Each structure stands twice: as C-alpha cells, then as structure tokens.
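Weekly sync, protein design subgroup
Attendees: M.S., D.O., the rotation student, P.L. (late)

Item 1: inverse folding check
M.S. brought a backbone from last month's batch and wanted to see whether the design step gives back something sensible before we order anything. D.O. pointed out we never logged the input encoding, so this time it goes straight into the notes. Structure tokens as presented (551 positions):
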C-alpha cells in the first residue's frame, strides 16, 4: 500500500523540520507533499516543488514534483535501493524557498521494477530485478478506466465491467497497458489533460486524478505501462489540438513555434506526475509530420526531467533516431488468420535490422474481418514471441463486431474468455524461458508448414504453424533445427490448451542439428527440447601408501 505523507507549510513557518515517512516497498511509489495557506494565481506555474533524494548507497537524485490538488504540491518517487533514504523537499515561490526534511525506509517487495532492454539480448526486455519480461499488451484508450467494455454478447448492445473485475479477468494473461493522453484531442479515446487552446498552462485535475487511479491499479497488479504524451494521428487528418493543427509546422511542430514553452511545460508535468508509474514514454501516436529536430528536442526535454531514464519511442516509428530506443509498430490485419504469422515474421525481421526491440503497440483486425478472432490472436502472439517481439492488442470487447464485406476501418480485437485462456497458456509457458534464447536454424525442406525456433546451449523451443488453413490436419515429414551436441528430452504441446501431446521422448543431435518429425496438427504446435545433462561417473583411484623418506 502506498504511503501518503503530507507536510503542512506556511509561508512564514515550517511546522516540522524532520519527518519519518515510514516504510515503502521497493519499486512502489511514495508521495511526499507540502501545502500552502493561499493558492497563487496559477498553481501549475507560480510554485515549484522538488525533492533531493539521498539513497542508502550515498548517491543523490533530484526529482521534480507537481501541483497536485487543493493547496497541495507533491513529489512522487519509486525507490530501487533497499535501506533508509533521506530527502529534502524544496518549495519555491517568488524567489523564496522553504524546505522540509525527512526519511523513509525502502523494504523488499515482490514488485519487479521498470522495463529495461536486456544487456544479453538487444531485442528482449527485462525488469529491474533482472528477470525476463515478455510483454503481452493491450490498450483500452487511456489506461484502465473505471468502466470498461468487456465480454459483449452480441453486436447490438454493449457490456461493461468495473476496473477490479477487469484486472482479475486478465490476471496472468496480459502484462502491459498502453495509456493515451492528449492536449485537447479526444481522438482514439485519448484523455485530454489540457482542455482547450486558451488554458495551455493549466491542466484538468479531474482527468489527472483518473490517470492517477489507473496508474495505481496498473502498478499494484505488476503490469508495465506505456504513456503517450500526444494523441496526433496526423497521417489520417489535420485535427485540432490545444497547440494547433496536427500538421502545423509553423506554430506547433517547430522549434521556433510560439507554443514550444507550453509544450515543454506540459511534458515535464506529465513526467513529474506519472513517471513513477511509467515504463516507456511514447512521444506521439501515429504522427507523420513532426520534423526530426522537433522530436529530438522533445525527447531531450523528457530525458532531462525523468529520474528513471525510461525507454522512449514514438509512433509512427523513427528507427534511425538515436533517442528512439524501441520501434513502435501499428498494424491491423485484413489478412485471414493463416496468413498473419508469415506476414508478421517478415515485418518484425525488417525492423529488427535497426538493432532495437520491436514492439507492436497497436494490433487487431481490419475490415472485412470483425473483432472476434481468438485463433488469429493466438497464432499472432506466438509468432511475435518466437521472433523476439510482442503485440499490444487494441481491446474492443464491449461489443461483438461481425465480419463486414468491405475494406477499411478497424474493428480491433475482442479479447473474450477464449482469447484470455490462449494468452495465459503463452504467458505461463514463456515465464519459464531464459532471456538468452536466440533464433536458430529452422529448416522445413519447403514443406507446407511454417517453423520458428529459439535456442541456447541447453534448451530449444519450436513453434510450428499451418499456413494452408486450419480445417484439415497437416502431416509434416522431418525438419531440422539447430542444437548443441547431446541428448534431449522432447515434449510436444498444444498451444490452445497448454496440454502435453503424447509422451516425452529422448532424441539425439546429429552434429549441431536435430532431425524431428512432429505429430499431425491442424493449426499450430509447440515443441520443447531440454538437454539431458551428461552424467560423469566418478572413477575410484587406489590410495598410495606413504613411502619412507629416501636419503
């Protein structure tokens, strides 16, 4: 549970000089606040609060705070190092500064910390505790609202659930949420933090509190979060925002534009308020007009304000930019299910050529297909994982959208009970896999199957897919995968159920490869090859008697 500590401050007297803030769990969020007696004209601009944090190892860090509500200013921080922390809060107004000092103790917890890029595999993620993190994501619009479309029964009426039941339904099935903020633009179900063009330096506190509540739920459930600063979609139209039209390269997306200072202030406010809950910053959503120097500058603003150095990206992707650490892809499938894995594999491979993680941050169906396609979601998610990537489904589950015999438009993805079951099988299986599994030889001899393989020296994982349709069983002949020398235990699994197919068997490598024949299957199949350790038999050696000293 988060500790909320409030410090009462008057302009003349500081009521407490030192406060013990209690215990905070590692990677949780502590809130340190100060209050004033009288609000200034603009509380978002006229008063600043910062915290100087000193960790148990002696290192220090500066954390910016924000105007919270009423007469309260707050600093949020997520500590990484266990032990006693010291802090100094500084509240500044009109050249005057008041301070509040205190301590808190960071204690061990089950929280994993923020997403990072693996040092041993540049296409995978880990958490700060060093464990692999394999995303299975979804987006509902902004965060996790208090009322969510869920398990719709038909096309004529919507069904909803609350935040608690939604998180229970997806527990252990997805682990990443994409949250879309905006400055005066509700397109794409974004939540505007700025309401209009006449109040650029004031933010909607009611909307901010909604994001606060969502962030607390996401953190408590151990999910990661992508936060988008600007809903844009400039490729698809020239919509208005608080800072101007999304294709405006004079006053908006310009380093000499009249709104640049307000844009910077807005971004720093977002970082200060929600940085302790974020894993990846996404500058824009579906922006095709921002100049490179403009994006580079915004990335620099975020990097300077962010004490955690979160990963950063934008959409549409800018893979060659130094500041862009993750490649964010969007795609909606007009292809039939059996053709999607082959397409995904090619697209992921194309963008992996830039040497950065590839993450689909929007994925679902496009017309003529509806939103109900659980098998498509299953084969797509497995294919993405096997190609060292992951998918974020745009979840529109409140209503069933049937197939429509026309092109264009996105019904997105219905993530009902069957899809959730499929995602749980994938999540449970991959949770046991090490981060150093890398693509290896997967040769089908041009049979009508698709095959992807990952391996290290002790373990190989195979995913087989039938691209010819799912009505009839496919009986493949032998295929070849890379391996190290030795004997392996081979197990086949149905990715629809997670159940083992048949008995495990022992197979031996042929040089640095393995020749395997799969059982018949209709849609897809998973194989696990675990190396059998070499057994070294100890050899007894006779003890030598001590020889007498020779002179």
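Designed sequence read out in the meeting:
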């Amino acid at each position: 549970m988060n500790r909320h500590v409030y410090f009462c401050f008057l302009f003349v007297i500081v009521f407490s000089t030192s406060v013990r803030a209690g215990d905070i769990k590692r990677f949780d969020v502590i809130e340190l606040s100060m209050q004033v007696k009288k609000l200034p004209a603009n509380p978002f601009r006229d008063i600043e609060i910062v915290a100087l944090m000193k960790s148990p190892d002696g290192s220090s860090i500066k954390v910016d705070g924000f105007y919270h509500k009423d007469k309260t200013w707050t600093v949020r921080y997520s500590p990484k190092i266990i032990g006693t922390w010291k802090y100094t809060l500084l509240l500044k107004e009109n050249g005057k500064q008041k301070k509040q000092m205190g301590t808190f103790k960071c204690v061990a917890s089950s929280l994993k910390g923020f997403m990072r890029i693996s040092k041993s595999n540049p296409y995978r993620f880990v958490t700060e505790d060093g464990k692999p993190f394999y995303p299975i994501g979804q987006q509902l619009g902004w965060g996790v609202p208090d009322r969510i479309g869920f398990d719709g029964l038909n096309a004529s009426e919507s069904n909803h659930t609350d935040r608690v039941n939604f998180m229970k339904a997806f527990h252990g099935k997805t682990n990443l949420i994409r949250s879309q903020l905006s400055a005066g633009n509700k397109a794409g179900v974004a939540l505007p933090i700025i309401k209009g063009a006449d109040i650029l330096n004031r933010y909607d506190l009611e909307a901010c509190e909604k994001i606060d509540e969502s962030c607390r739920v996401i953190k408590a459930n151990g999910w990661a979060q992508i936060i988008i600063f600007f809903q844009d979609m400039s490729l698809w139209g020239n919509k208005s925002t608080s800072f101007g039209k999304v294709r405006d390269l004079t006053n908006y997306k310009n380093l000499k534009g009249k709104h640049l200072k307000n844009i910077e202030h807005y971004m720093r406010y977002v970082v200060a308020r929600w940085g302790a809950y974020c894993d990846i910053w996404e500058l824009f959503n579906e922006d095709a007009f921002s100049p490179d120097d403009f994006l580079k500058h915004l990335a620099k603003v975020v990097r300077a304000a962010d004490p955690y150095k979160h990963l950063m990206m934008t959409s549409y992707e800018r893979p060659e930019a130094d500041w862009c650490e993750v490649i964010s892809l969007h795609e909606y499938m007009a292809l039939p299910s059996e053709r999607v894995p082959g397409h995904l594999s090619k697209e992921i491979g194309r963008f992996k050529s830039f040497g950065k993680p590839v993450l689909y941050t929007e994925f679902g169906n496009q017309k003529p297909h509806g939103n109900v396609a659980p098998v498509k979601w299953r084969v797509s998610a497995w294919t993405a994982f096997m190609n060292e990537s992951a998918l974020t489904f745009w979840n529109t589950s409140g209503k069933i959208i049937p197939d429509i015999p026309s092109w264009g438009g996105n019904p997105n993805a219905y993530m009902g009970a069957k899809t959730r079951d499929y995602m749980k099988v994938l999540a449970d299986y991959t949770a046991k896999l090490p981060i150093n599994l890398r693509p290896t030889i997967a040769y089908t001899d041009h049979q009508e199957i698709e095959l992807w393989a990952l391996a290290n020296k002790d373990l190989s994982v195979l995913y087989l897919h039938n691209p010819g349709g799912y009505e009839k069983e496919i009986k493949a002949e032998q295929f070849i995968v890379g391996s190290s020398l030795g004997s392996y235990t081979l197990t086949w699994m149905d990715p629809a159920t997670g159940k083992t197919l048949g008995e495990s068997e022992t197979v031996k490598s042929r040089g640095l490869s393995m020749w395997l024949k799969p059982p018949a299957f209709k849609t897809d199949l998973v194989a696990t090859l675990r190396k059998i350790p070499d057994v070294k038999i100890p050899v007894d050696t006779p003890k030598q008697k001590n020889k007498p000293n020779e002179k």
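Discussion: Residues 1-18 have pLDDT under 50 and may be disordered. The longest strand covers residues 96-107.
Action: P.L. to compare against the previous round before Friday.
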